[in-house]
Design a protein that fits this description.
mainly alpha, elongated, 13 helices, about 220 residues
Length: about 220
Amino acid sequence: MLSFVKLINSCLLIGFLVHGTHALANSEGVLDYDKLREKITFGKATFAEVREALTEPNVVNLTNTLHALYSMRWHRAVLHLYQNIWDRKREQYPELAWELLEKIPSRIALASTINRVRIFNTEEYKAFIRSHRYADHEFIRAQVVVSLGLNGDPDDIEYLVKMVHSTNHYVVQTAMTSLALLGHVRGKEAMIILEKTYRDEPRGKLLRELLKQAYRWEPIIQ
């Protein structure tokens, strides 16, 4: 569990994904959204805390929380929450940050979480994620990349490799980390090929770090 959390954090906290508004823990009446997200990530939040976390006023942080909700899949009320948010049932939870929850990045993150929890009959959610693969906005594309890595489908490796070869710094780093999150032998093989291509560049360094952490692989020293 701990190694997965470290790896997912390395993916979600890349570049602009860490640039958000953070609530002050010691300000009276102000929610500490970072603390709430941490409790969710480790599956230790109450349902009330989950609902509080989803009032997050920053879309970047909110998408991270939606990904982290996978760890709360043991909670029946949270499972209903996933679906009700997807179905836009505002009346069920009127206090949530609905304007942000209905934005494309949040919907992608939610679709990814539902897809991972349900496993079967998830074509609707996978199709929604993949429909935004070539979005113009880097944040949307990065959310797609994160989601595909978390979903673990080797059919998406070709796209993730293409994103590693792209020119957007944030998308490139997120794509490399997502290949590690994939946890599939074909993902490992793709990363080894990429490491050879970018060996003397910053991409090569990050690829080696991720290969070691995710797949216990290190290049052979000649």
